[in-house]
TrEMBL record:
Name of a matching Pfam family: S-Me-THD_C
SUPFAM superfamilies, sorted: CV3147-like
Origin species: Nonomuraea soli
The protein's name in its UniProt record: DUF917 domain-containing protein
S-Me-THD N-terminal domain sequence ranges: 7-161
InterPro entries reported in the protein's UniProt record: S-Me-THD-like_C (IPR048350), S-Me-THD_C_sf (IPR024071), S-Me-THD_N (IPR010318), S-Me-THD_N_sf (IPR027479)
Domain annotation S-Me-THD-like C-terminal: ranges: 166-344
Spans through the membrane: none
Leader sequence residues: none
Amino acid sequence: MELNESDIPALARGCAVLGTGGGGDVRVGALAATRAIREHGPVRVVRIQDLADDELIVPLSGIGAPTVSHEMPHGEAEAHRIVEEVEKIFGRRPAAIMSSEIGGSNGVAPVAWAAQLGLPLLDADAMGRAFPEVQMVSMYVKGLPADLVIMADVVGNVTTIRPVDGLWSERIARAVCVAAGSSALMADYVLTAARARGAVIEGTIGRALRIGRHQVLEALQEELGAIRLITGKLTDIERRTEGGFVRGSATIEGTGADRGRGLLLELQNENLVAIEDGEVRAMVPDLIAVVDTETAAAIQTEALRYGQRVTVLAWACDPIWRTARGLEVAGPRAFGYDLEYRPVGAGA
């Protein structure tokens, strides 16, 4: 499979939905991907089985507060600097780039980085959605050591981190990111194809493309297997940037058939918890997306505005996140919520 310029709008729409409000604005990644394809040609998409066991895969993603990336977008140099550092460490060139998270701009921008680097893109990612913290990846859940993180910023700094575990990779990488202005490009879990097998979530580029081709709310809901939490108007939004994250909450007041109802969303880059009348309707690691009711286009947390007419959808995460280890890494308690995980739709 190849990704051409004509594929980027659908990929961007799908990644926005899977971003659950985070992962960065897909418009930035889509512009970069479109420009890179025009300059360097289509991007070949490969599967893990297409790679030899010892070939290297480099997961790439932007790290930081999504609102900052609007003012300080990544250039072409950062990806080249990271790959150069990988070559120094491993003594060979990577065989493929992989998106660390298929959600948001971090799902689309790797198309640009792959085109610029002349490397194929792996049809897989490490989340099946977007998460805000470095250790919240499938490789960490599977027990692979988080022993290498490489970061590059727009100034030209390259930082190589050798953390003792995934939690330390988040702490150190976040500190470096904040020092860089809360925006940097990052490669974590550089790994061989042999180690990647069974430790990444496969087929997510194709899934994002299928999701993105739906522009009618009912068709999108069916594609996702989602439940509709509420349709209404955004009446309150509170956001702040701190510690390299966007944190806050949003309130949706029901309209039409949902008049008289209200839904509160808790945010940390992504939509984490949906609460109605004190009852939790959906929570991480399941996916919660705010979409435009008319166009079915996802709305990122930094783009939420008073008066928007929206529908909130929720659907099941990849099974890896519902394991005991997955919930420990990215369940509600990992974000400070004293909640017992309940799968989306249970009791609804």
